[in-house]
Amino acid sequence: MEDTPSSRLIPDLPDEISVQIIARVPRLHHLSLCHVSRSWRSLLLTRLLFTLRSSLHCTEPMLCLNIRTQRNQSPWLVLNQGRCDTNSLPSSPLPTVGSACVTAGPFIFVLGGSLSASGVPSNVVQILDLRIGGQWFLGPRMSTAREFAASSFLNGRIYAIGGCLPSLEAWAESLDPFDRNSQWVPIDSPVHMRNKWMHGCVVLSGQVLAMADRGGVAYDPGQSTDSCSAWGPVPKRLDLGWKGRATVVNGILYSYDYMGKIKGYDAGIDKWRTVLGVDKHLPKFLCGATLANLHGILCVIWEQRKNERNRKEMVVDWAGIRVTDLGSEGLHGSILWWETAALGVPYGSAIAHCVVAEF
Asked: Which of 23, 60, 155, 254 suits a disulfide with 52, CB 3.0-4.6 Å?
């Protein structure tokens, strides 16, 4: 039976063509589009639309901050280029301390952490669906409670590493975030690598790199998940140079040193190189800047420290840097923007998580 015009997404057009049209509409209009009809709303919430937007190169990045206030509140905000304010997202139903955070498509996964009400580490997985306004729901619980774990997304799976007792077999585990029936799968890991506290995690050269207090670990999911041979130490030079929050942009891992200079690690040559051209324009990031990859642009976010005595609201500066690899001449950065944003939260709050979702 053929669809009648009244049952189609757009009358007089086949649904195959209509889906192609809707997929090209900028994300900021999606909330309005969901009010057109139930079928439009259903389409906007399907993985089909996300997959199609990805294939059409129509996905748009969204830089999200999770703020920890002194009153144990945990609001989520969106930084918008060209605006001095932020968009508010729904707060998580279970505020946590020491949770891990990772994105997969339009979803933010908040893994474990100590529940603010009890102070006890949990295995709860909270998921924020950023489509059409944002909505929280609970995902499958991890095999064990975690606090200050490492997490990442690689090749269609989410990985959670550490943050629990070293004796547990599920010290590392993974999940398919797009399968509603998926459960966490433990990953074999060497016992001697487990006695670590994680403070950072990235994906670099097809490996999950989890940085710890005593030597980082590398996991290659391309090898068998039931073999400890998939694990190993991170390169020593990388381990010694990674300070603070890091991110990977175009295959280069970026961090900053004790002098506040931004530098990039190239795994191909096992070398750190300072990003030139930005020193005179940006402050020294000795107070803990946050780095993020915003669609190929290196973003640096830091709390503004001017006029601290009279300040009642947390204010951040953030800059977008396009980094060019000039080979033997090093890494050169060009500042595309530098903006200030008032976060609408009390002064004295801190950035707990900074993630980029793209859909």
From this structure: 23
